[in-house]
């Protein structure tokens, strides 16, 4: 997997050395739900169990094997920063630079079938390029085999 997709300030990798302790906690939560399986099921994930991250959580439905993704939910803090509600929208319908980074991250989850760390020193969100972001993207499965939902905690550097 490439460590530096199209922009040198954005990287995705399976080295889960998060700067933000909240993302380590999120990963530990997922690992505890996964147990000895490849992935936890969506119904085993209870967002109320990580309330501090809830405003920063996105959940995506994997469509057509990963040809596109649909925002299942978008946290309130992320919706506020984006400036409009994206719940129910396709990733392909949003700003191209943001969509490109989301697609790279989600495709990496599908390719590796593992948690992914995405980090940048300049956010792709319009008006937020003055700050960095770090994200943890985690696969979920309804049937225990196929990744059909990906949950992501994405934190902007200057937002708590």
From the N-terminal CA to the C-terminal CA, the straight-line distance is 30 Å
Q: Could you report the average pLDDT, rounded to the nearest whole number? A: 86
**SSE pattern:** EHEEHHEEE
Return residue spans where pLDDT drops below 50 for at least 5 consecutive residues. 1-6
Structural class: alpha+beta
Percent of residues in beta strands?
Answer: 15-25%
Number of strands: 6
CA radius of gyration is: 14 Å
Describe what you observe in this structure.
- The chain has helices at residues 21-34, 76-82, 96-112, and strands at residues 10-13, 57-63, 68-74, 116-120, 133-140, 149-156.
- It has 160 residues and is of the alpha+beta class.
- The chain has a single domain (10-156), classed as Beta-Lactamase (2-Layer Sandwich).
- It has three helices and six strands.
- The model is unreliable at 1-6 (pLDDT under 50).
- A hairpin with an 8-residue loop joins strand 5 (133-140) and strand 6 (149-156).
- Strands 1-4-5-6-2-3 form a six-stranded antiparallel β-sheet, with helices on both faces.
């Amino acid at each position: 997997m490439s460590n530096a997709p199209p922009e040198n300030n954005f990287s995705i990798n399976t080295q889960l050395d998060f700067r933000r302790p909240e993302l380590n906690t999120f990963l530990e939560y997922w690992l505890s739900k996964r147990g000895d399986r490849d992935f936890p099921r969506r119904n085993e994930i209870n967002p109320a169990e990580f309330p501090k991250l809830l405003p920063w959580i996105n959940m995506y439905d994997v469509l057509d094997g990963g040809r596109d993704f649909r925002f299942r939910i978008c946290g309130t803090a992320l919706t506020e920063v984006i400036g409009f509600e994206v719940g129910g929208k396709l990733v392909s319908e949003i700003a191209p630079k943001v969509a490109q980074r989301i697609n790279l991250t989600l495709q990496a989850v599908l390719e590796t079938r593992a948690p992914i760390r995405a980090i940048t020193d300049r956010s792709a969100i319009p008006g937020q390029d003055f700050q960095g972001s770090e994200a943890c993207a985690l696969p979920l499965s309804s049937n225990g085999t196929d990744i059909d939902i990906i949950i992501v905690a994405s934190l902007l550097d200057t937002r708590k």
